Each structure stands twice: as structure tokens, then as C-alpha cells.
Q: What sequence folds into this?
């Protein structure tokens, strides 16, 4: 008789969970800010889940965030090599 209640509760809980945890943030200018690149040690399976529902603009913001991490890491490596060689 109430076989539809359990799936309904599950669907509502899933929707509530998806709405309550934003994947993207905006700064004061409305520019999208990356959230996945704030933790460079994020497990790949979590990253895969987080980026799956993103739009093209949101993916671009995430890619830009990861590019900044790579640049910063490269600059640190170059600086440490320069100080090591001197």
C-alpha cells in the first residue's frame, strides 16, 4: 500500500542533498570561482562526481583553477631549483 513512500523519501533526500551542497561559488563580481581546486589532494573519484553535472562555463572555471595550481607548483619547483643550484 505504501510502497511508493520509500522511493519518494529517497528522491526527496537526494534532491535536498544536491541543493544544499553547492559545487560552484561566485565572487562579488559574479565571476565563477573554482571549488574543486581548493584541495589539490582531492580523490579522483570525488572529483569525478563533483564535475560530472557542471556546465561548460563551470568546467572552464574549474580548469582555470587547476591551471593556477599547476603554475604555482611549477614556479615553486623553478625557485627551489634556482636556490639549489646557487
A:
Amino acid at each position: 500500500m505504501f510502497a511508493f513512500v520509500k522511493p519518494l523519501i529517497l528522491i526527496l533526500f537526494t534532491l535536498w542533498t544536491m541543493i544544499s551542497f553547492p559545487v560552484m561559488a561566485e565572487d562579488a563580481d559574479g565571476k565563477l570561482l573554482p571549488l574543486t581546486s581548493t584541495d589539490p589532494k582531492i580523490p579522483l573519484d570525488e572529483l569525478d562526481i563533483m564535475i560530472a553535472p557542471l556546465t561548460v562555463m563551470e568546467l572552464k572555471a574549474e580548469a582555470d583553477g587547476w591551471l593556477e595550481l599547476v603554475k604555482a607548483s611549477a614556479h615553486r619547483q623553478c625557485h627551489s631549483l634556482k636556490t639549489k643550484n646557487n
Q: What stands out?
A: The first helix runs from residue 5 to 20. The longest strand covers residues 25-26.
